[in-house]
Design goal:
The protein is of the alpha+beta class. The protein is built from 25 helices and 13 strands. Helix 23 runs antiparallel to helix 24 (636-666). The longest helix has 35 residues, at 499-533.
Length: 688
């Protein structure tokens, strides 16, 4: 470390300038990084719905409708005028309404009531359309201009539009809230008004470089785009705190700032490295998910942690020496009080705390496996016009979730039999196919391509079943299985896709991912802890502490009866473990040193006094970041991640402060016997 620190500190202005210049370049590159809002794109390539989508896009030029537009209080001619206005928008295709199903010149009272009320009911018209993928923002802005306050819009493409419109503003709003709060926390925990600015500058540069270098991937998922900057800030700010706190300690011993910084870099490097490695390995586990949104997020966070580590070990020391005069001029007395009583309380209630946590953690472990999960966006845009529009359309016309089947072309009679079998399934409100819509009497070869192209490609026939179920849930997934089973009765080869089908496949994929990701994270972090403490027992105690906090965190939705985003559940298990195990590492590292000099109870009390302030600030920052995401985002997946992260940080803080000391107290002899070179204080060892 001395060899590394010497050139950094000698050429401090050059080192600082290189990172600032890199951040400036990456800030520009960041603007060119694409953001993908379609979660179905992250399913494995061999998922049935992914294959089906590829086949359909290759075979059919006409898209499946992905949005519904309702216009209120209109006559038939007015509805037809709206339909033509929507059709005229660039990027809108396959606009269908009542006139495509029946002859609107004939009085509607004498026509099939079920068909009519699918499109026109109580003076309201429901028009289906397909919006071109990737251009949703412009298209729906124009659609809103066409329908005005008289219209309502809902559908999968509208959810993408809503996510696109809100993502940047919500991330910016979250940053504007969290930064002042973090600054306030850092001010009360440091001895200079300038130090918090340096903390944020170091991690801010790392964040900008991280997000800008995503340009090499072309695009990232919307979840990564929303969560990664805030999570990187909250998780890696500790590294900067470790360094500058050590620097302040050594400045009290020497007048030479460069010497003080060299010593600080040397002393803090092992703690920063261990902290970074546990977080990095925790995030790395996400990269092994079959559901590729985990790889997308995991890769970004791993890269972010590595860049934060480099910025804290190279950029921050150089920047600090460059700003030394500013730091000295802005010194203030300690604001945050001492927490000596916390250690006494933790030791005093150690055994009751242990019993309480065990009584809560065991049922929590069982409960968190039986949560009700949401695999998609859930109620995206709840409380916004998008949510109100969806509710209005469903109230007027009911839900309409399409399930698309592709079957080999050539047997119209078999297509009709399948269509009728699908129509007979529970929750199916209508089926559109050539055999059912046009009829079997007229061969498709005798009709124009405009009529047959929605139904036939050269090799496949397309059948669309419309369901009254939500996009996901027990009924929706049961219907997907029923549709596939029904198709299998008539054809050996078939493909199915649609929002419900995508989410059904997503459920199957991410359920398998859960065990793998958690196992890899625990093994990787356990290995780091094993090398760090050279102990068999300490890694087990630390992992048990954080895992217990995760189980309790995940069990709360079960006991409250609240559905939980599975993506949030899957990601937070790794994030909470990787991010908050640092608290346990800091506590245990100090305890191990104190235990060599003191009996177990006295060592625990002293350790609390040394570490509680740092752990409290770190947990408060992570918790504030999580709760800010929860409160500012309208995206249910981001909301779930934020709430779980905020609550998880507080639970980890509580268990590290009270449950971990109880474990160290109870298993003191075991730890001493299973830790290499423990050299624990022998005289006066107290029994728990």
């Amino acid at each position: 470390m001395n060899r590394l620190s010497e050139p950094i500190l000698k050429h401090k202005y050059l080192a600082a300038s290189i990172f600032i210049a890199a951040a400036a370049v990456c800030a520009v590159l960041w603007l060119g990084v694409g953001v993908n809002y379609n979660m179905a794109d992250y399913l494995p390539e061999d998922a049935p719905s992914t294959i089906a989508i590829e086949v359909m896009e290759k075979e059919f030029t006409q898209a499946v409708p992905n949005a519904r537009v309702m216009v209120r209080d209109v006559t038939i001619p007015e509805a037809l005028a709206y339909k033509e206005a929507l059709r005229a928008i660039d990027g809108v295709s396959d606009v269908t309404w009542l006139d495509d199903a029946v002859d609107v010149k004939i009085p509607l009272k004498v026509q099939d009531e079920k068909i009519v009320e699918t499109y026109y009911k109580d003076g309201n018209a429901a028009i289906s359309l397909a919006a071109r993928k990737g251009d949703e923002t412009r298209i729906f802005d124009e659609i809103y201009e066409v329908v005005g306050a008289n219209g309502a819009i809902a559908g999968d493409a509208v959810n993408t539009y809503t996510a696109q419109k809100s993502a940047f503003s919500e991330t910016l709003r979250a940053m504007m809230i969290i930064l002042p709060l973090i600054l306030a926390l850092l001010v009360v925990s440091t001895l200079s008004w300038a130090e918090p600015i340096l903390f944020l500058a170091a991690i801010g540069v790392a964040i900008v470089i991280n997000m800008g270098t995503n340009r090499i991937f072309g695009e990232i998922s919307f979840i990564t785009n929303c969560v990664s900057p805030i999570l990187q800030l909250a998780v890696s700010l500790d590294y900067a705190i470790f360094l500058l706190h050590s620097f302040a300690d050594f400045r009290a011993e020497t007048d030479d700032a460069r010497t003080a910084m060299k010593r600080a870099m040397k002393r803090s490097f092992p703690a920063i490295l261990a902290s970074a490695l546990t977080t990095l390995f925790g995030f790395s586990a996400l990269c092994f998910m079959d559901f590729r949104i985990g790889f997308d997020m995991g890769l970004n966070l791993v890269k972010g942690i590595a860049l934060s580590f480099l910025c804290v070990t190279i950029f921050l020391p150089a920047l600090t020496l460059c700003c030394l005069k500013w730091i000295d001029k802005t010194r203030h007395r300690t604001i945050l009080p001492e927490f000596s009583r916390v250690g006494k309380a933790a030791v005093k209630i150690g055994i009751p705390a242990f019993i309480l946590v065990v009584l809560i953690a065991v049922p929590s472990f069982l409960a968190q496996r039986d949560n009700d999960f949401l695999y998609g966006m859930g109620n995206l845009g709840e409380g916004t016009r998008t949510g109100e529009d969806q509710a209005a359309i469903e109230q007027a016309f009911g839900k309409q979730t399409p399930i698309v089947l592709l079957v080999p072309r050539g047997e119209v009679a078999k297509e009709l039999a399948l269509s009728e079998a699908l129509a007979a399934l529970p929750h199916v409100t209508g089926v559109i196919s050539y055999a059912k819509t046009v009829g079997t009497a007229i061969p498709p070869e005798y009709l124009s391509g405009d009529i047959t192209s929605p139904f036939y490609s050269q090799r496949y026939a397309r059948i669309i079943a419309y369901a009254s179920t939500s996009e996901e849930g027990t009924e929706a997934f049961a219907l997907v299985e029923s549709v596939r089973d029904t198709a299998a009765l008539y054809y050996d080869t078939y493909y199915s896709c649609g929002e419900s089908v995508n989410l059904f496949d997503m459920k199957n994929v991410v359920t398998k991912d859960n065990r793998l990701v958690n196992m890899l994270a625990v093994i990787a972090i356990g290995a780091v802890l094993l090398l760090t403490f050279r102990s068999v027992s300490l890694p087990l105690l630390l992992l048990l502490t954080i895992e217990a906090s995760i189980w309790i965190n995940m069990a709360i939705p079960y006991f409250s009866g609240t559905p939980l985003s599975y993506i949030g559940y899957l990601v937070i298990s790794t994030v909470q473990l990787g991010a908050t195990v640092d608290y346990a590492i800091l506590f245990t590292d100090n305890y191990r040193n104190n235990r060599r000099l003191l009996p177990v109870r006295e060592a625990l009390k002293m350790t609390h006094g040394q570490t509680f302030r740092s752990i409290l600030i770190s947990a408060a920052i992570l918790s504030l970041a999580g709760f800010t995401l929860w409160l500012t985002s309208t995206n249910p997946v981001v909301q779930a991640l934020g709430l779980l992260m905020g609550r998880g940080a507080l639970l980890s803080l509580a268990l590290v402060s009270f449950f971990l000391p109880a474990l160290l107290l109870i298993f003191d002899k075991v730890v001493g016997a299973t830790t290499l070179s423990a050299r624990f204080y022998k005289k006066g060892i107290e029994k728990p």
